[in-house]
Amino acid sequence: MEVLESFLVLGVVFGFSFGIVAICLYAGHRQRLLRHQERLAAIEKGLLPADLEKVSHGGDACCAGRRRFRGVTTLFVGIGLAIALYVTAGPKTAVWGAFVGIIALGQLLQSYLTHRSTRPAQDA
């Protein structure tokens, strides 16, 4: 009976987790769909939506900021994972945390180089 209860609890936890993720994905999809419909309606009327006026070819500063945020977050996840693996399993497995950290450093470098190349050149 105890095993059945543990499977039931596990099923409920995973079911609710899956449900929350599914609801969030559907809400995001619905929001994007409504935004696209709004843009199409504005374009049909001959108006250019404000967010389309700001788009540049190399990506805007907001996207670069998000990439930097993801890179820093992934870097700290890698550091934490390396420390946790070092403490629990030894130095041979801590390499996987360092691997995640190296990926994060690559993301940060890519964000820096992309943002740097999209800045407008200033006249001297």
What report would you give on this structure?
The chain is mainly α and 124 residues long. It has two domains: 1-54; 56-124. The protein has helices spanning 2-44, 50-53, 61-89, 95-118.
Question: What topology does this entry show?
Answer:
Elements: H1 2-44, H2 50-53, H3 61-89, H4 95-118
Helix pairs in contact: 3-4
Provide a compact summary of the structure.
The protein is mostly helical. 81% of the residues lie in helices and 0% in strands.
Mean pLDDT: 79
Oligomer: single chain
Approximately what portion of the residues adopt beta-strand conformation?
A: under 5%
Radius of gyration: 23 Å
List how many beta strands DSSP finds.
0
Q: Tell me the distance between the termini.
A: 79 Å
Which terms summarize this structure?
single chain, 124 residues, mainly alpha, 2 domains, 81% helix, flat
